[in-house]
């Protein structure tokens, strides 16, 4: 994929984000529920529990994206427009996730009434805090992790879940959708790196937010076995 990242600081940012991503992959490899999935010991109950815990991050995602858009001033009007469009595309994704939960044998009220786990609470609080800051260019680091998860892992997770649970794909539509569509979202992030990462301060802020979001997302998944 041609990244279209051309500035020196932009290239440094891209390289730093890739390093954060590789570390995130290692963190995920130590999460018990992901280990069960990768080793073929994943059950339908595991899948319902995974969806139950992911829903809060999905349903709150559009909120922090929209909050972030409102925090950009007129000098970043193009960035604000892109972020608003992204929120519009994803703000009802949680309905697809809920439908998968029901298709996998869950009750609608169970997933709709579930509370955030500790990792989800921390992730949501951090994201809303960062999104409320003036011109929060560091949110590109958060989007790099979350959209990257969809583009690089969701499709493979859907395939593994179907194999482990003898599924036919009808209850993994949320993950399959993101595995097929998040390429376009990452393309937009590549295009934004030169735009928002212009100084060393921007660079460090973006990478820090990416590292924090990666750790809190992994914590959210770790909490599945602690709930």
TrEMBL record:
Name of this chain's protein: 3-oxoacyl-ACP synthase
Annotated Pfam families: Haem_oxygenas_2 (PF14518)
Top-rank lineage group of the source organism: Bacteria
InterPro entries: Haem_Oase-like_multi-hlx
């Amino acid at each position: 994929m041609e990244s279209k990242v051309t500035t020196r600081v932009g290239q440094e940012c891209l390289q730093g984000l890739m390093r954060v991503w590789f570390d995130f992959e290692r963190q995920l490899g130590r999460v018990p529920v992901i280990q069960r999935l990768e080793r073929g010991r994943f059950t339908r109950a595991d899948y319902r529990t995974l969806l139950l815990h992911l829903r809060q991050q999905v349903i709150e995602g559009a909120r922090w994206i929209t909050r972030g858009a409102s925090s950009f001033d007129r000098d970043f009007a193009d960035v604000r427009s892109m972020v608003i469009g992204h929120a519009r595309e994803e703000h009802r994704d949680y309905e697809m996730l809920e439908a998968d939960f029901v298709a996998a044998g869950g009750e609608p009220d169970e997933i709709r009434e579930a509370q955030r786990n500790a990792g989800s609470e921390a992730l949501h609080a951090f994201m809303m805090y960062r999104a409320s800051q003036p011109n929060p260019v560091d949110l590109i680091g958060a989007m790099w992790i979350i959209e990257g998860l969809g583009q690089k892992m969701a499709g493979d997770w859907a395939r593994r879940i179907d194999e482990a649970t003898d599924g036919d794909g009808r209850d993994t539509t949320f993950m399959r959708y993101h595995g097929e569509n998040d390429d376009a979202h990452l393309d937009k992030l590549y295009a934004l790196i030169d735009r928002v990462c212009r100084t060393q301060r921007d660079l460090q802020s973006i990478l820090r937010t990416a590292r924090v979001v990666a750790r809190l997302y992994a914590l959210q998944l770790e909490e599945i076995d602690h709930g």
